[in-house]
Amino acid sequence: MPNPKFSFNLKPKEAIEYLQSKGFKQSFHYDELMHEAHHRSFTIAKMMNNDLLSDVHASLLQAQKDGIGFKEWKKNIKPTLKSAGWYGETEVLNPKTGELKTIFVGSRRLRTIYETNMRVSHAVGRYKKLISLPLSKYWMYVSILLPTTRPSHADKHETVLPRDDAWWDTNYPPNAWNCKCKVRAYSKRDLDKRGIEVAATSPENIATKDWAYHVGKTDTDNLKALRDTKILDLPKDLKAKAKESAKLEDIYTKTLETVPHVLATYLLKNRPKMSFRKPVKGKVVADAQYNPNTKEILFWTDNPEAWQTRHELSHHVDKLNNWVSLKKLKSSLLLERKMLLDIEDELVTMLKENKDAALHDLIYINYPKRLGVDTRDGRKLDINTALKETFSNILEIIMSGDERVAIIQKYFPLSYKRIESFIKDL
Description:
Helices cover 51% and strands 10% of the residues. By secondary structure, it is mainly α. Among the domains are: 13-119, no CATH class; 252-426, no CATH class. The strands form four sheets. The protein has a three-stranded antiparallel sheet. Strands 8-10-9 form a three-stranded mixed sheet. A two-stranded parallel sheet has the order 1-2.
């Protein structure tokens, strides 16, 4: 018998990244954005204010990260909604028709907003975990079997189908408003040991109109599969270009997975050009380089590492903001250089324990005795170049969200705060 409790206090990395990755889209009716389009855009029906959408989105993301339940989330977001005039009885204008409609925003509507976003992001995170299990190629539909459970959902309880069965593409839970069903994964061996049989045929569809799509698969998953199929149908002379374009798209999408939401949204709106180049014989260049004149990232390798792309993206952000590093970091960096002089032994130990190129580069270009690995072939950097490289190294680390962030906060606290403040203002 399955556990009837459903917890939002789980904090899977994939679920948080999914909710974090969404842009904003106004919609007067929920079904103006259908099915997979909801994976791309965060929307709340009749909330026609992008600033308010952003505030609610941020509150839901924080709730997911901190395991905050509905009551506390409602208490936290209520003042924001009230100040924006989107609480209690309120009038909303449909920009397409000019219709003025009176709606009521209270606990019921807010609970729907909270639970829908939490359940869908949880479903995405769970799907990614299930699909990563190589032997568990069978999925069981599990209903919680409460008095309020829909009969059609209860009837499908413990139905087992191959995970690639087309039925899941329109019925993967949640597949209706307030649906609490889920999926469990089994291997063929697991099924045989438990005496569980696989359904001979796919059952009838049970998803309601708004939910008749694979909630677990993100739009990127679906579009990538469709794109790869289309490429195979192209004439030979176009296949190579299409494959290169698809690879660059995958590189960019993967790079943005760890990037803070505000910055990811900015980079989606201000995307640089990207292209692969063949290495020049006898000339040594970095695997990735940013050309500020053309605002283009050049890849001199077919498989750039994510940190390389993030570093060059940081240069792109700096360039778009008129080399903000020159104005924001100079005073803080000069102070930090003096601070580093007092902790040389500690720096040496840190650099021995951590081989990360960005950390070594930061210390090398900002410490008089050139501690760390020489990543620049002995070239002496002028202050402006050092500032730009410092900005890109720190921003790359912030974009990665990994353990290096704590190291940056310790050794470059002033520069870190200035760049963090800059991101918030984007």
